[in-house]
Amino acid sequence: MRVIAPELLRWYDRHARVLPWRSPPGVAAPDAYRIWLSEVMLQQTTVAAVKPYYERFLARWPTVEALAAADDTELMAAWAGLGYYSRARNLLACARAIVTEHGGRFPGSAAELKTLPGVGDYTAAAIAAIAFDEPAAVVDGNVERVVARLFALDTKAAVRVKAAELTPAERPGDHAQAMMDLGATICTPKKPACAICPVRSDCRAFELGAQEAYPVKPAKAARPHRRGYAFWAEAEEHVLLVTRPAKGLLGGMRGLPSGGWNDAPSLDEAPFAADWRVLDAPVRHVFTHFSLDLSVACARVPRLNAAGEWWPIERLGEAGLPTVFDKAARLALRERMTETCLAC
Ligand code: SF4
C-alpha cells in the first residue's frame, strides 16, 4: 500500500488532465474560490459540460466577493442548463457566508468547510486537500471505484477507511486529483485499461480477474407498494369494461374501470355514482416497478350509458383481461356466486 501513492503521483506528473480549474502537477493550487466553484459545478455533471460554465462564471464573477454580490436572478440564469439548481442557490448562499462570516476567505480545513451551505464531505475534502494541502481523503465516484478495486472492498465504509490510509501527507491535493484522473481515464466503470494502469501490480481486483465486480452494487431499493380500486359494475348479466389509455401501464388493454393507483385510493374514482360495496380482501399483484393491493368495489346498476363497453359476463374469458384485472374479476365472480356481494 505504501507503494501506491508514489507510483500514482509519478503517473500523475506525466499524465495529469489539463483542466481550467487546475494547476499543473506540483505547482501551487489556484485559490480556493476556483476549486470550490469547479467542484460544485462538477457534482453529478461531466467535465465537458462544466468547462464553458466555469469559464463564463469566472469571467463574470472573478472573486468570491463578486459572486456574493451577484444578482440572484442573473446567477440563476447563468446556471441555466447545468441542472440541479439547488447547487446554484447554495453557491450564492455559500459565497455570501464566506464574505459575511469569514471575511472573504475560505476556511482552511475540511471540518470548517463542511459548515458552509452546500458543502458536503466530498467538496470539503477536495477543497481542503487541493487548496490547503490538508491530507483529507477525497472520495468521489471515481476514487471509490479505484479504491474498491485496489483492495477488493465491498462496502463504502471500507473504501473510505482505505482511501484515508492511502492519502499521503505530501501533495495530498495532487494525490486526490491523480486518483480522480485514474478513475476517469484508466480505471473506468467498464473495461478498465489495466494493461496501462500504474498501480496494477498492487491491485487485488486485477489479481483476482474481478475488476468489474467492484465496487459492489448496492441491493436494489425495495419495490414501492401502492393501493387502488377496480370497479365491478354489473347490469343485466354484463360487466362494464374500459380500454385503458394507449400510453402507460397496461396501455391499450381492456380492464375494469379503476382509478390512479397510489397511496390514497378513493371510491370517488368510480365510473359513476352507485352503491359500491368493497369486497373484504384486496387482490395482490406485483408489477415490475411496484406491488399493488387492488380492492374490488362491486355494484349492481341499471344498464346505463357509461364510458366503456358492457361485456357479457359469460364471455368474460374472451375479453383478454390482463392478469391483475382477471384476478379482480374472479374475486367479484366468486362473491357473486355466494351472493354476499351483489345480491345483498
Ligand atoms: Fe483499476 Fe485495473 Fe488499475 Fe486495478 S489494475 S486499479 S482494476 S485499472
Question: What can you see in these coordinates?
Answer:
The chain is α+β, with helices and mostly antiparallel strands and 344 residues long. It has 2 domains: 4-213, Endonuclease III, domain 1, CATH 1.10.340; 225-343, Nucleoside Triphosphate Pyrophosphohydrolase (Alpha-Beta Complex). It has 13 helices and 7 strands. The protein has helices at residues 4-15, 32-42, 47-60, 64-68, 72-79, 86-102, 110-113, 121-132, 141-151, 156-166, 172-185, 204-208, 323-338, and strands at residues 225-235, 238-243, 254-255, 277-278, 283-286, 291-300, 309-312. Strands 1, 2, 3, 4, 5, 6 and 7 form a 7-stranded mixed β-sheet that branches. Helix 2 packs across helix 3 (47-60) and helix 8 packs across helix 11. The mean pLDDT is 92. Residues 146, 149-150, 186-187, 192, 194, 197, 199-200, 203, 205-206, 211 line the site of iron/sulfur cluster.
